[in-house]
Specification:
The complex is a heterotetramer.
Chain A: H1 8-25, H2 28-51, H3 61-78, H4 83-105, H5 110-130, E1 140-141, H6 154-181, H7 183-186, H8 189-193, H9 195-201, H10 205-231, E2 233-234, H11 236-239, H12 242-255, H13 262-280, H14 285-299, H15 305-313, H16 319-329
Antiparallel strand pairs in A: 1-2
Helix pairs in contact in A: 1-6, 2-6, 2-10, 2-12, 2-13, 3-4, 3-5, 3-10, 4-10, 6-10, 12-13, 13-14
Chain C: H1 3-34, H2 40-61, H3 68-91, H4 101-123, H5 132-136, E1 139-142, E2 145-148, H6 149-171, H7 173-183, H8 185-190, H9 195-217, H10 227-242, H11 247-267, H12 275-286
Antiparallel strand pairs in C: 1-2
Chain D: E1 3-14, E2 17-28, E3 32-36, H1 43-50, E4 58-63, E5 66-67, H2 73-79, E6 81-83, H3 96-108, H4 121-133, H5 149-161, E7 167-171, H6 179-195, E8 199-203, H7 207-213, E9 216-221, E10 224-230, H8 231-236, H9 238-245, E11 268-279, E12 282-293, E13 297-301, H10 308-316, E14 323-328, E15 331-332, H11 340-344, E16 346-349, H12 361-372, H13 377-387, H14 389-393, H15 404-418, E17 422-426, H16 434-450, E18 454-458, E19 470-475, E20 478-482
Parallel strand pairs in D: 3-8, 3-9, 6-7, 7-8, 13-18, 13-19, 16-17, 17-18
Antiparallel strand pairs in D: 1-2, 1-4, 4-5, 9-10, 11-12, 11-14, 14-15, 19-20
Helix pairs in contact in D: 3-4, 3-5, 5-6, 12-15
The chains are: A mainly alpha, B alpha/beta, C mainly alpha, D alpha/beta.
Chain lengths: 330, 437, 300, 483
Amino acid sequence: MTWRRDKTLWGLTLGLAALLLLNFVVPDWFTNILTLSLARGSVALGLLVLWRCGLISFGHALYFGFGAYTVGLMSRYLGITDAFLTIACGVVTAGVLAYGLGFLLRQYRGIFFALLNMAFSMILYGVLAKLEELGSTDGISLEATTYLWYAPLGAENKTALFVFAAILTWGVAVLVHLYLRSTLGHMTTAVRENEIRLGYLGYSGERAVHAKYVISGLLGGFGGAVAALTIGHVDPDSMVYWPVSGDFVFIAILSGTGNVVAPFIGALMYELIRTYAFDQFPGIWQLIMGGTLLAIIMFLPNGLWSLVERRRSRGGPGSADRLQAREEEA
Amino acid sequence: MNAIPRTRFMALAAALAVSLAAGAASAQTVKVAVPTFLTGGGAPTYGVPAKNGVELVVRAINEGTLPAPYDSVGMAGRKVDLVVYDESGGGTKQVTELRNKVQKEGVDVVAGYISSGSCAAIARVAEELQVLTLLSICGTPRIFEELVKEPKYLFRIINHSTGGNVGAAHYVVRKLRGNVKDGYIGINQNYAWGQDAWRDFNLAMQTLSPEFKPARKQQFPKLFSGQYGTEISVLLRAKEKLVHSSFWGGDLEAFIAQGTARGLFERKTFVWPVGEITAHRLGKKFPNGQLARGPYGLYAEGIDTPLNKWFRSEFRKAYKQSPSSPAYHYADSILAAKYAYDTAMKANGGKFPSTDQVIKALEHATFDILAAKVKMSLGKGHQAVTSDRWGYAEWDDAKGEIVVRDVVEFKAECVNPPEGVNAAEWVKGGMKGAKCD
Amino acid sequence: MDPELLLIILVDGLVYGSYLFMVAVGLTVICGVQKLLNVTHGALYAFGAYLAATLLILYFRLDWPQFGAFAVMLLSALFLGVVFGLIIERGLLRHLYHEDEHIIVLATFAAFLVLEDVLLLIWGTDPYLAPEPLGLLGATEIAGLPFDNYSLSMVLLSAVVAAVLWYGLNRTQFGKLLLAVIYDRELAQAMGINVNRIFLLTFMLGSFLGALGGAYQAPAISVQPGIGVEVIVLAFAVVVIGGMGSIPGALIGSVIVGVARAFAVHQEPALELFVIYMIMAAVLIVRPQGLFAPAKPRTI
Amino acid sequence: MSAVLEVHDLEKSFGAVVAAHDINVVVEEGETIGVIGANGAGKTTFVNLVTGHLPPGGGTVEFMGRSILGLSVRAITRLGLCRSFQVPQVFLSETVFDNLMMAFGVAEEDGAGLLTPLMEEERAARVEAHLARYQIADYRDVIGSALPQGIRKLLDIAMATVRKPKLLMLDEPTSGISAEEKFAIMDILMQALKEERTTVLFIEHDMEIVERYVDRVLAFYQGEIICDAPTAQAMRDDGVREYVLGRGHDAGAETRAAASGRSSSGEETLAVSDLDVSIGATPILRGVHLSVPSGSMCGLIGRNGAGKTTFMRAVMGALSVQRGTVRLGDVDLAATPAHRRAHLGIGFMPEDRRLVPELTAEENVLLPVWATRADNALERLRWIYGLMPEVEEFRHRGATSLSGGQQKFVAFARALMCGTRLLLLDEPGEGIAPIFAQRMVEILDDLKKEGASVLVAESNDVHIARLLDRTFVIERGSIVDDR
């Protein structure tokens, strides 16, 4: 089991290639949805890192918004539109915030962790909605994105952004996958099931949670930065308000925690369901989203990825144990 | 990662995508997308009346039953295919939806948007998507001043919000000097519209009559908070007699209910830049006060153009109530589109015009809307100005409805900055170049 | 500071605090007994407000005694409590009690989304106004300012609700059985207590209180789409501040937030928006379990 | 020899309960020390204090010549002071291999090294060697929750030794392991530890284990060390005999059977056959047959973790029955909702008392009556007070203000309140002072004379053997002896 060949890296790379090829086939609006899925998927990936150790944040729009606003403010006040620089800054500022708040949050588990995150995201929402310098509720519109010396316009810019985002997201997913394979990354079950034992092995659960929290904050910032570039606009209502955090948890539930690929598939499914519901049933699209979420919770509690796992578990020795473990978790 | 589920998943996604793409436009109509609030707090007072206004006018356009000059069938001879969709959910969603509507469903014109946040979010995207977009209500002057300085596809068919609040200040200084001698205080919702409204009003007051002082601290309660007991205490305690409030919708209705129970409106005079819509709904329960803005809604009563008479009577017939200003604004945007298409066709020798020709026809144009004339004179010919009307609202027992008395009409050039001047700086700088009378 | 102003701040704070308490108390009851955070509570509040407003409008068309309005509010809350209690508890939560607490929160979040649209399907987007009861009780002058007695009666109502709940929980047989269920479900069952029925009754009670909060607010607000979304975050914050499941905690938490907010509005309006979250963050930093929750037992 | 651990004047109290007082211990390198004492004597608290899990109220702790007072568990562990647990603390959803892999990973990596892959060939080889040393390689791919108790215990200890600690503290290494297995497992363990030259301090109840493996004994009683001496000497110590071994009271054992009042009528009150019960995916009970004849007192005897509590919970309906039947008279309990048992006349006393803290003693006793609305409640209460006059004395005190023993009596009274047909008592004598345990036996004796049907679960039947009409010995979830 433990020594199964690691196919995820190949899968990720194939996925990247497929995405880049897909770009030539699908219509523009679909490219837009794909880019947004990459952004939201990254945030959900951050939630996955936390969720594996039994924690859920109902306030990750905090980091999403932080990354997005960093990009927005750089564009507005510094005139910096370079994608490399703005995304890097968005990621770093979100990471620094997560590092700071992490000292407090790492002491909490369960619903308190979830709600305290929500409280912080609502404080950020309040600040953004209040201050005209930060665009208030109207938000901030971004100048067209540039890539070092390359400054495409119009539809070309969207394609460039998609390619850029896809490659970066690939890199991010690979890094997270490598992290999850590391000793620190493996401290998920350990934190969820038995922090006392972890302490007596020589590492503290709080430190492990802090590390994971920073990683999830970085991913949130990354997602927010990419989303800001994709939308071309940042505003508090659609980036920081609490239902936005709810959407990320929705995607995480939809995806399942099985693999780093899952959140991206989940995010795409989410976008498609939402677009479809909004198109076909404009009056009751919330009802459809809620119904979908309920159905997932009731019938597919381990998310879409469990479909993959289930198929895989039919073959290969030793997989039954892992499946059993999963039932235990439930 | 396993290959099999992935292919299966991609197939599923592709199937979804195909089913989404179905229903793309047929060629022989003008497809008009109308974003408006169908859910959430903006729906009842703004979104739904707006939708009603649009649907009424579009039906009439397709039947050719509008009065002149809009009495031809369709836009440039083609029937209008209307797609109304929800504006709630914030800027991100609106950007995505706009893309979907344009790229997936192939709409030709977008006419709508209530919230400034939506407008700010989609402004550049509309230009990028090259779709003719007529903004209907969202008030922020930043659209053409900051966001899109070289507009091509983006137009706005009403005054931006500065005009309304400057008009309010003019009216206060001219008609309500007695109520403002102890100064004035503001209570506005804590978001962009509320903040802008207070700033414009306050600056205009300072320019027009610096002897009237604003209160030391203004109230900015959270949007949709619904509980105003404490704020009402503060207002009751304040020495200032005049209160500026750009509240709207459910917040305004709750504020009025709670304020009435505590005698607030007997002690203070209120300036409501967007109170007109609520006055419609509350009727007798609406406290007396100043209302804004423009020749719409209540203020359009008694404006005897054939278009306005038709609109008021048909609207009453269809929806059992008078049209409020959002109904006017949305209907006006459709009229603007029709004007542009029809004019462009004429210029094109009777052939259906290209989008560029339609845009050319609309830039710098002057044309009739329901109850007034608009001039597309600002924002390089993309931002309309109209005159602004202010008055004192009162319940009239005899008529059984709210009437407006002491109406003063301010010319468009009086309450709007000249072309090329930033609105906020114009007000701050003493409203130079304003032509009042 | 001016003592009159202090008095006014206190009264304003109590009125706002009682609003918070009425909004949060149902949530905290369910949270305490069933150990779950119920997001549908926001929808219950909205349903309560809608039903009460609709019935009040109808009621005031009749020529019946005006004070019957209060009975109308109470009855609509009772009706909703029973109906929704049954539907949500039996239909949804019963199947999820063995799940992780996060999953239950998410399930109620999903149910909340569904209910919001159901509300729209039933009542449409039109706002409902029924302000008549607001004027029914007259006004009182406190420190030179008129206060409407309806708002003040909310303080009384909160006090009554808190007292009845406290008495019911600590002084009646049913309450003592409830304490046993709260303490340990398995033991309660072994002692012959039908925990399933207690859960259903508790959920109905919590739903009733949520709907009552909405119904009593209905005359003071414009009842329209979206009112549930705002309420749920406030209620969560109060429950977290007071300690999950603690009724005195919810009461004291509400009063603290209410008075702090009134202070901000009178003295420093710019801070109003943050008051509740700052108090919540501060309480959690100092007392992670909230003001009134018991400490957890040792694990090894 | 040099001192590995020096503890001086260690103090700790939880509220009014003194858990450690004036503790002075010096552990020399290479020693094997046994810590003995009744439940609640402060043994585990001692380990918790030394390893940094609990902050001491006072005193000094030096490890390898350096003060470790105030350091975190993590830091102390990294210095080489490790421990195992009474209830094994393993990662239940991970395999044995993965558990150890994690342990090795944390032990071997620090700083940036924590970001290198956990799974690597060389580490895996070390894990395999460790598995072999502790003879658990057969269970390599079994997840923690599915392990037999003894193996789980070994895994717990194996995880604690990954770091090659200077000093290892084991908390009841043989609890929950059957009598046949215990020496085998201890041999494996002590052999492995000797190879690594580890100094060991372990808490143990089983005197056979203590006498066989330990050089020196520390005896705890009510938070204090009452004896610190070489093993043989300690076993002869009066204090140890009185407070730890409890042998001073054994004199009454010869009255066995003499007191058995009525004989059973032959009908069965409780009849359990072929019962299988699992918790999660782990089977706990396998094919249990057990019956309690009407009017008899039966014992269910087995070590910690043998399945006694699981059996009781299954009868009470808290766990679902996978297979088999559970009948009370002619009622099929498996098909009856859990809360109906009290209505049917079954009284249950849980091992850990579980009094509702907000209520008084009497209110706790009355709970079942309120729930079942049974008749004759006052009469029965008076009868119970007659049986246990001490409960009547403190009936108005809050549950939390009572001592552990008093709480046990209240829990007992509560079970009696509705237990008109059958009483299930889970370890009534466990975790309370000998004087209370003695009194408990007296009450059981009285109860027996009244002709009640009772099933008592105990880990050993030393105190109650004479009262039992029938004894079922349970081991690893099966009844192995029925006498």
